[in-house]
Amino acid sequence: MTRNLENVLLLQGGGSLGAFGCGVYKALLKNNINLDIIAGTSIGGINAAIIAGTKNEEKTEELLENFWMELSESFIDLEKFASSSYWSSLIARNFFPDYDFLKFISTEAAAKGAEINDRFATKTNKQKIKINQLKSFYSSAIFGNDKMFVPRWSSDYVLTDQDYFAPQKWTYMYDHSPLTKTLEKYVDYDKLKPGGNSKIRLILTAVNVLTAEPLTFDSYRQQITPKHILATSAYPLYNFRWVEVEDGVYAWDGSLLSNTPSREVIAASPVKDKMIVLVENYPPRIDSLPENLPEVYHRARDIMFSDKSKHSVKMSKVISMYLNYMEELYQIVENNIDKIQLDEKQLKRIRRKYRKYKLEHGAEIKEIYYITRDEPHPHLYENADFRPETIKNSIREGEEKANKIIKENKRRR
Hints:
Helix content is 45%, strand content 12%. The protein is an alpha/beta fold. A hairpin with a 5-residue loop joins strand 5 (201-208) and strand 6. Residues 92-112 have low confidence and may be disordered.
């Protein structure tokens, strides 16, 4: 990873899975990998804004981790409202038909002093994990997370929401504007504008609700404000509301078009070659086929949100090849102007196109490093799991994975 390239960090969306990206950033910082551009969508865009707009350059990784721990501390444990056994049994019997049978097998084996069959033990353990995941999802769905999003049916909205008692008119179920107040502690917006003193260029993506056209928010070209961060994270299938980023322009989460904003980075910075670190919240490969419908839906979701940048890498190389060929032809023209009969207008047009196509474009993705999250226990609602234990484990995994990739790269060099 060298400094003659622009170093780019791409952060995918994925709700609570974004804690993995926090760990990756910590590893990059500890290995003295300086970033030129950081781009993200959805929760990746939120992470990116905290990094690029950090209120403390010396403790950026600490601020980012504090943000995630603040979200996790706002998680509401369902056990506070009913016993653990009540929620576990309720969820288990509704989602795992063989729950009582496995429980019986485990009890009988233990009573006889025998070892539980490995197959039953593995399945029982897997069910316990999934039950905890489901409890976490129900907590987020019912109570939200007051540091990031709150349900529209909260009593706080009785007097301010004119459609509070008319849910048939609702176009969203959760208000994620509380995120703005939370980010005030972490983001210095004066850095996120042309001429700002941020060391890192910030690129966020969204999509126009009315036209389906991509929207790119670039701190080198415009002031990034809280509404842009809300726009990049306004995912409608999480039941978040759209955001009006300017008059008549209504935005949703950029992951609806692409969860990996590599094309947007090339378009924003089309001259310098790139070294990219790509944080994959949704693994592109799995070892075995799904075993039931929830796992089928989970896998389909992962495929939709997985990285599609391989085509961008190939196209950048093809374009570079064409531009190099153009360079050869252009030099032939310039070196033989006296021999080639060209009128002045035609020569000016050739030179103008050369500057536009060759000198102002041609960025190639030279290196790309994939930091991919593991999914030992895949679950459709894992991106709504804000339990402190889950967030801490995800940060740790991201840091460990990134350190491993960085060390492997150093050995190859």
